[in-house]
Write a structure and sequence with these properties.
Length: 171
């Protein structure tokens, strides 16, 4: 199963999402990227990570699959047993989309439940749908409630990170 959603999250949305994830998924770990010098870099929430990538891991940290790199660093997984978040970034008062994605084995019921809980939390922190320049609604994007408030105040605009297309929030 593959599941993904493009994200427009303000910092306050990330904080709210982290809190929801901790409440819904006991023992969840927020991994700051997937390559580390000595051991996995675990943080208290998405907002505590200082990289653009966060990996959600919901199992005992000792079971995290790790591989050694030639330079001695450790590398963790990017799919399967983790959910990947590419964080929204802000540049010149424009929120550039992030993404959340999960790629799991179709028969992994435990991971499927975790992914379902993650998506439940996403529905708590935002609303799916943006208006494209041609007027159509694209439901592959989620706008956080705090980001939406900033958009309505005209403090920020939103655009797709990859193609630079600007969007408007839905009504």
């Amino acid at each position: 199963m593959k599941k993904q959603l493009q994200l427009f999250l303000a910092l306050a949305d990330e904080i709210q999402l982290s809190a929801c994830l901790k409440a819904e998924i006991p023992g969840i770990v927020f991994l700051n990227d997937n390559v580390w010098t000595a051991s996995p870099d675990c943080r208290d929430g998405i907002e505590e990570c200082d990289t653009g990538r966060v990996y959600l891991y919901a199992f005992p940290l000792e079971t995290l699959p790790l591989a050694g790199r030639k330079n001695g660093d450790l590398e963790g997984p990017i799919a399967g047993c983790v959910v990947q978040i590419l964080r929204t970034t802000e540049k010149d008062r424009i929120l550039l989309s992030g993404r959340i994605a999960a790629g799991i084995d179709d028969h992994d019921d435990q991971m499927r439940r975790i992914v379902d809980n993650v998506w439940t939390c996403l529905r708590h922190v935002g609303k799916a749908g943006v208006v494209r320049p041609d007027g159509r609604i694209d439901r592959n994007y989620l706008v956080g409630h705090h980001a939406l408030r900033l958009l309505k105040e005209k403090s920020l605009r939103i655009a797709d990170r990859a193609i630079g297309m600007y969007y408007e929030p839905t009504a």
